[in-house]
Amino acid sequence: MIPYGHQSISQSDIDAVTAVLTSDYLTQGSQVPMFESAVATVTRAEYAVAGNSATSMLHVACLALGVLQQDIVWTSPITFVASANCALYCGAKVDFVDVDPLTGNMCAIALANKLQESKKQGCLPKVIIPVHLCGHSCNMDVIGALAKQYGVRVIEDASHAIGGQYQDQYIGQCQYSDITVFSFHPVKIITTAEGGVATTNCAELAKAMVLYRSHGVTRDKDMMLRPDEGDWYYEQHFLGFNYRMTDLQAALGNSQIMRLDEFVAKRNQLARRYHFLLKDTGVEFVSPLDNTLSAYHLMMILLPENIARKVVFDAMRAAGICVHVHYFPVHLQPYYLNLGFAEHDFPQAEHFYRHCLTLPLYPDLSDEQLVFITETLKGLL
Ligand SMILES: *Cc1c(COP(=O)(O)O)cnc(C)c1O
Description:
- With 381 residues, this protein is α/β, with parallel strands linked by helices.
- The protein is 38% helix and 13% strand.
- The longest helix is centred in the last third of the chain and has 18 residues.
- The site of pyridoxal-5'-phosphate (PLP) has 14 residues, from helix 3 and helix 4.
């Protein structure tokens, strides 16, 4: 079976993890701060805070921005459930902004209209979470300007997008957002097995995320609220979590991040091959905006209206090609239907979902495999 995504693990990756395993610290050693600084370097952000998953860091990002029970958070319906769940963890309400029909990313026009409407009704969101689907950046200058105009904070869910660029900015640089979150799950661009990082340029937000990641506990002498009791003393200031990344994970990340540019270049090269081999077949490509570099986490196409996606999907799987569908719209998940969402709430997202198909894309995918995939698909169309 050709998977839809797969990690690329080198001997250096294995050696890096093994070295930690035989060292004194399996967690809370030097690897995590090194990984944080490596992510800050590649994204050009001031601060990077590592945790045990992107899901955890999305939660911590919401907490740092002060998302509370009465607040509202908006995200895209075409995403993994974590982009929405993070707000529910804070007790906030979630709503969605419909997507652009071609990119599947949060539609800037739909966002503008929804902001205007909700301002009238006095129910503006506290935070919006655009998602860079496939690694293709959202229209961040427009989203950022709207957020500023309405006093809304922005968290970029860049789980798919490390190593990408938007105009002359690196994804994670936070030019148009407060915080950007990356995932290092094995199918993503680089991996720590499980893991996530949040970047920001705001010292206060970085400090808050560090505390929320680690029980709300500090050992920083300058932050103590009570008199110091001695070297063993630490203080808990609010209710945090154990969302820490281990040094084993960070060592893998430190080794993987050295190949980030190579991975992104290879993914783009394979994407161009797909475009070339599938042109004139009637499929639409879910493509990055001009003036961006996509990390190309996913190779996504939209099948023509008259093609039954399930038939193509099942036949590709039967041929040993693990195509996938990203994503079943979050608002149609049974849990979200129970919260009051319904079919037809976000028609563009539902239409996108019905026609999208994810083809295999990962650095070690061979050209023979890629040709086999495109020939099989062409035969079915
Ligand atoms: C993978 C993913 C997440 C969650 O990442 P984890 O590191 O697995 O928690 C969140 N949002 C999007 C868009 C993702 O693809």
